[in-house]
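User: What would this chain look like folded?
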Amino acid sequence: MPSLLITLPALDEELAIADVISRIPTEEISEMGFEIETLVVDGGSSDRTVQIAQDLDCTIIEQWGEGKGLAVRQAFKHFLSNSHDYLVMLDSDGTYWPEEIPRILNTIPKNGIAIGDRLRGNLEPDAMTTTNWVGNHLLTWLAVALHGRTINDLCSGFWGFSRGAIEKLELNSLRFEIEAEMYTSSAKRNIPIRHVPISYSKRKGEPKLGSVKDGASIARKLIIRRIFPTPYEENQ
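Assistant: Here's the prediction, encoded as structure tokens.
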């Protein structure tokens, strides 16, 4: 029976995380033939995020430091040190719909990746600011122009991975540039990518992504990986 690791990076998400976890369609996923582990990677929450996740029988690991990039990379280490076959990652702020996990799973190509596409899916009113919508389109265009691989929604936080794909990824991102680096590494290593139109809702709680600062970091990562395709500290 294949094993699925559902990963939720979290930092002070007590307003949303219980709803996200409870909406994971565990029965449907089990009927697809998967064993499931739900992993919350906590970035130092000062609210009830960890307690809520523990009460809902999630595995909890604490990050090495701050930043979503660290959370994702630590989840990958946990994945590779266990016998999991697939990993699905989504944010714990209520923006992504856990009910769509089976669609992501069914789209993952052999030794490849499936990426949730908000821009061609069901983008709810007020879910994304105009600045973020424009910035995402510009960053996605820049990614394709620099690296030559099609991607529809570079900054999506809803991804599905095969074990073969995770074994090939080379990453050292610390913060929100992690998705850009996963894309550039996939382009460099010829990892197959598929796109899945998904739903996207307004987050619960205060946003953590800063439009200008984080957008600049993402663009910088795209440019650096075009010049230096392999990260220096991939095992950090």
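The CA atoms of residues 16 and 93 lie 5 Å apart. If you want, I can go into more detail on any region.
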